[in-house]
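User: I'm curious whether this sequence folds into something compact or stays loose and floppy. Could you predict its structure so I can see for myself?
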Amino acid sequence: MGAIRDLADRHLDEQIALDPMLATYKGVPGHDHELTDFSPDGLAERDSLARRTLARLADLEPADDADRRCGELLASRLANDIARHDAGEDLRPLRVIGSPVGALRAVFDLTRRDTDDDWATVTCRIAAVPEAYARLRTSLSSGMSADLFAAPRQALACAVQAATWAGIESGTTPWFAQYVAAGPASLRTELGRAAVAATDALADFAAWLRETYVPAAAGTPDAVGADRYALAAAGTLGARLDIGEAYGWAWDELVRIETEMVDVAQRLVPDGSIADAFEHLDTAGPAIDGAENLRAWLQDLVDRTVDELGVAHFAIAAPLRRCEVMIAPPGTAAAQYYTAPTADFSRPGRTWNPTMGRTRFPTWGEVSTCYHEAVPGHHLQLAQWVHRAPQLSQFQTTAYVSGNIEGWALYAERLMDELGALDDPGYRLGYLVAQQLRATRVIVDIGMHHGLRFPDGQPFHVGEMMTPELGREFLFQHAGKERDFLDSEWVRYLGWPSQAICYKLGERVWLAGRDAASRRAAAEGRTFDLKAWHAAALDLGSTGLDALAEILPTIG
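Assistant: Here's the prediction. I'll summarize afterward.
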């Protein structure tokens, strides 16, 4: 391994020591009794590490292409982290998904609980919850003093999450009380005491957000503006973003997708509309009753897909063939998500599926999303990175670039459509609805945060500037019919600028790279081997989209 990859892994080791929750996600032992410090002191320690590593990197020369790619990734990640710290972004980290508020609870989903010793460690970690939220509050208070606020909408969304886990939202029960109920009798008293303290801390934090932070943040706009958006996009995409080009392209892409949707809808309901097709599938199409039955059905789909794809289309290594389907805890955002396996695969990759209080699940909307989250989507890519870590670096399996991984997962959905797995008109409409949502995301996310105008040639508020309210209305008209889900998505876009555009813009890079590699093979008189191209692409490890766009045409 070259000097740069060695530095990247030493940086990761030091990062883990300062970020015990990252250790849990990676499966590194020795830190499961701790929680990450989100206080100003904790933030400063991690910033200092980033600056030291970036300075060391400047003195190193790459040993080979793999070393060079790792160095480019390390430099871009560190530079973006430093820029965000300098801009005070880590003093206003409130958002409905991907914030410390949720991460401090979600880490318990991945904390080992197999033995009594594991549960003793869990007890220590739960006991650390009150201090962890107090430290986060200190950073938020520092942000308030510096006039750096998250928008009130994001603070309220985080307050609802904390209150849900505290069991004080209507219809909820304390999450930690349920969590410790599975613990051993020998630790029942300690676990119960720690759970009560953690629950009280969540309730206090929710109240502080509602009663102190939100009033102080009044007037903070939902839209972040061009400068903050550009900083965010550098991290989520790992690419230079042409706002005008991406916005115009997304409008064209939405028209293409919706034209296909009309054709498929009329296969289901002759002379009917897209809304008629939705109604038909929801009421007359196949459905599953009960969250556990949904989980079992999705697990069967994942297992069958692994078996089918692992022959002709992908070389799926044995450790990757296990991917567990889970039901997400209440209080999480509406979107499905994935967690990667540990380095030794003792904890497998997992997909997490929120139910949003539903008990009946029409299957037409589930299949394409399952391909996105599991196989050949997130699980196949991210678990392969873990599997290939000895040849890459541990850092390259950890430093995710959303544009790369979400782009691959959306490409995976398209691939399954190309392979005929979505020929059923209901499943294909579900896939197209997912594509429609992702194209609409680009329009709404860029449009809301930049105040762009609705273009000519379409009927929605032509020439008017897109406000968050108009963005929400447009989303409701062009992204399916689940209003609760779309409301959650809209809040997510406002709180996590540029992440929503990663899917379609990332997919575009993956498709362009595949097409270019295919043309190169033809020019050289070779038959393009898609299976070999996929294998080489999945072995690259994490890269930004600009680097990925250069590499993909050259492999396979």
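Summary: The longest helix spans residues 188-216. The chain has two domains: 3-222, 236-502.
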